[in-house]
Amino acid sequence: MADPSFFKNCGPFNLQAIADQTGSNLFNSDLADIEIRDVAPLESAQEGNLSFLDNPKYKDDFQKTKAAAVILPEKMVGLAPKGAALLVSENPYKSYALAAQMFYPEEFPVAKISDQACVDTQAKIGKGCVIEACAVIKNGAQIGAGTWIEAGAVIGENVQIGKNCRIGAGATLSHAVIGDAVRLYPGVRVGQDGFGFAIDPAGHIKVPQLGRVIIEDHVEIGANSCIDRGAGPDTVIGAGTWIDNLVQIGHNVKIGKGCVLVAHCGIAGSTVLEDYVVLGGQVGVAGHLKIGSGARVAAQSGVMRDIPAGEEQMGSPALPKKQAMRQVAALKRLTEGAKNE
Amino acid sequence: MADPSFFKNCGPFNLQAIADQTGSNLFNSDLADIEIRDVAPLESAQEGNLSFLDNPKYKDDFQKTKAAAVILPEKMVGLAPKGAALLVSENPYKSYALAAQMFYPEEFPVAKISDQACVDTQAKIGKGCVIEACAVIKNGAQIGAGTWIEAGAVIGENVQIGKNCRIGAGATLSHAVIGDAVRLYPGVRVGQDGFGFAIDPAGHIKVPQLGRVIIEDHVEIGANSCIDRGAGPDTVIGAGTWIDNLVQIGHNVKIGKGCVLVAHCGIAGSTVLEDYVVLGGQVGVAGHLKIGSGARVAAQSGVMRDIPAGEEQMGSPALPKKQAMRQVAALKRLTEGAKNE
Amino acid sequence: MADPSFFKNCGPFNLQAIADQTGSNLFNSDLADIEIRDVAPLESAQEGNLSFLDNPKYKDDFQKTKAAAVILPEKMVGLAPKGAALLVSENPYKSYALAAQMFYPEEFPVAKISDQACVDTQAKIGKGCVIEACAVIKNGAQIGAGTWIEAGAVIGENVQIGKNCRIGAGATLSHAVIGDAVRLYPGVRVGQDGFGFAIDPAGHIKVPQLGRVIIEDHVEIGANSCIDRGAGPDTVIGAGTWIDNLVQIGHNVKIGKGCVLVAHCGIAGSTVLEDYVVLGGQVGVAGHLKIGSGARVAAQSGVMRDIPAGEEQMGSPALPKKQAMRQVAALKRLTEGAKNE
Question: What's the domain range around C259?
Answer without folding.
Answer: 171-341
